Amino acid sequence: MVADKIEKWQNYHFGVAWQKAFAFLNTLSPTTNDGKYEIEGEEIFAIVMSYNTIQRENAVIESHQKYVDIQATIRGVEGFECFCADTLTIKTPYDATKDITFYEKNAICHSRIHVAEGYFVMFLPHDAHMPCLRADDKETYIKKVVVKIKAELLEV
Question: Fewer Cβ within 10 Å of end Cβ, the chain: N or C?
Fold first, then answer.
């Protein structure tokens, strides 16, 4: 997992796919329409979405094998709980068509992060995460983007 300000993306040297992802991220604003955006076909793409944050009991823990997630908040603040996937109990086995595994919520997270406007968090395939969480005690409307990069394209 990597978390930082979007403006500091160049501090990380993950290759051309990383550069393309952040070139796209730097074009977004709170007025960007929700939807899927192709950056480089199915190799690198983004999904912009808006929703209200939720309480932990309504959230899910997930991980991805095929894609690395770069998640950035465009409006509002979103909470995430982060886990090492290999320490979790699988609830729903890996679905290759959706690139997702779901886990039981019987583990304590190793870290919790709040991603505010202008920040990002990157989850690698071994990082499980619980997104959509309230950053405080109240529901908040957020707009965010998830940039998906095929894992083999990221130079780590």
Answer: C
Task: Report which secondary-structure segment, H or E, holds 133.
Answer: strand 127-133
**Does the pLDDT of residue 89 top 80, yes or no?**
yes
* Domain 2-153: CATH architecture, name and number where available: Sandwich (2.60)
DSSP label at 66?
A: S
- Measured in whole angstroms, the distance separating CA 63 from the mean position of its chain's CA atoms is 10
- DSSP H or E stretch at residue 148: strand 141-150
- For the chain, which residues make up each domain, given as ranges? 2-153
Q: Indicate the pLDDT class of residue 115, thresholds 50, 70 and 90.
A: very high
Rounded Cα distance between 139 and 21, Å, is 29
CA–CA separation, 146 vs 24, rounded Å? 11
Mean pLDDT of 102-119: 92
Q: Residue 131 corresponds to which tokens in the numbers above?
A: 């997104």
Terminal CA-to-CA distance of the chain, rounded, Å?
Answer: 12
Amino acid at 116: A
